[in-house]
Design brief:
Shape: elongated
Order of helices and strands: HEHEEEEHHEEHEHEEHHEHEE
Number of helices: 9
Distance between the termini: 98 Å
Radius of gyration: 32 Å
Helix content: 10-25%
Strand content: 15-25%
């Protein structure tokens, strides 16, 4: 008799699991092993799939207005938003990604939504709710759904512009595209030879460019000639000094400084470890 009762209880448990999750009728969801939603969830299957050829419909159903740092959108489901729990504030969720295929992706304001916080859904304040509660509100909301996002405004976006043209010129750094032709002027004070002007391209390796000209003695002396590592950054013998480089060459890394040691100033660089990024005047050591 006890065995029969146990079987009956086990069967009842299978028909009515304690942690069952009833999916709303308008939602198509893959059965899950647990009723608790993950703390990171894509809002991609909260409604039936939109019919083919509805991109124009999605775009037309997205309304937009800006008020201070609040962005209000009216979006069709599926939204295409990837949300995470806001761990920096008291509850709520933030947008971490926008997936193609959702109505948010069709919005002209999609780039502003990244890292924004959802303030309200259909007028209901969800900014302090738990992740699961926010998800429930969005799931149960009709389509289209009105959502207010708190947009993150960076300090760069509100920084005051330069007041003078001179100040702008000071901060402006020229940029050279990959493959752009530039000139490298080479000074060899130890040889008493005149400066040599080389035609090079952005992206070329500085060591190879210097060695390609037979009049440039990059490895001067028997020690350097016999002991150079062949461009592997191991010997430090290909060091040159950057005399003038228009501010486009980045600062040398710690490894270069270690390999060069006391053989030159802090402007000295390993030619083998630097690709040309713009015009420059270099001096051999």
């Amino acid at each position: 008799m006890a065995i029969i009762s146990s079987v009956v209880i086990a069967a009842a448990a299978l028909l009515h699991p304690v942690h069952s999750f009833v999916t709303p009728p308008s939602i198509t969801r893959t059965p899950a092993t647990d009723s608790v939603l993950p703390k990171t969830a894509p809002l991609l299957s909260f409604s039936k799939a939109t019919p083919t050829g509805s991109r124009s419909k999605l775009a037309s159903s997205t309304s937009l207005f800006m008020s201070s740092s609040i962005l209000s959108l009216t979006l069709e489901k599926p939204l295409g938003l990837i949300l995470e729990e806001d761990e920096n504030n008291q509850g709520g969720v933030i947008v971490t990604q926008i997936n193609e295929g959702g109505s948010a992706f069709e919005s002209p304001s999609k780039d502003q939504l990244i890292q924004s916080k959802i303030n309200t859904v259909m007028g209901q304040d969800v900014s302090t709710l738990s992740f699961d509660d926010v998800m429930d509100v969005i799931i149960n909301a009709p389509s289209p759904v009105g959502i207010e996002f708190a947009i993150v405004v960076s300090s760069d976006a509100v920084a005051a512009p330069e007041t003078t043209a001179e100040a702008a010129e000071v901060t402006a750094i020229p940029q050279y595209a990959m493959g752009a032709p530039v000139t490298i002027t080479v000074q060899q004070p130890e040889t008493n030879k005149p400066d040599i002007v080389l035609e090079a391209k952005v992206g070329d390796n500085l060591r190879k460019t210097l060695l390609a000209n037979k009049d440039i003695e990059l490895y001067r002396g028997l020690k350097k000639k016999l002991g150079n590592c062949g461009g592997g950054g191991q010997c430090g013998f290909c060091a040159v000094e950057l005399i003038d480089e228009e501010g486009v060459w980045a600062e040398r890394i710690d490894y270069e400084a270690k390999m060069i040691g006391n053989k030159g100033s802090d402007k000295c660089r390993l030619a083998c470890m630097n690709n040309i990024v713009g015009p420059a005047t270099v001096r051999t050591l």
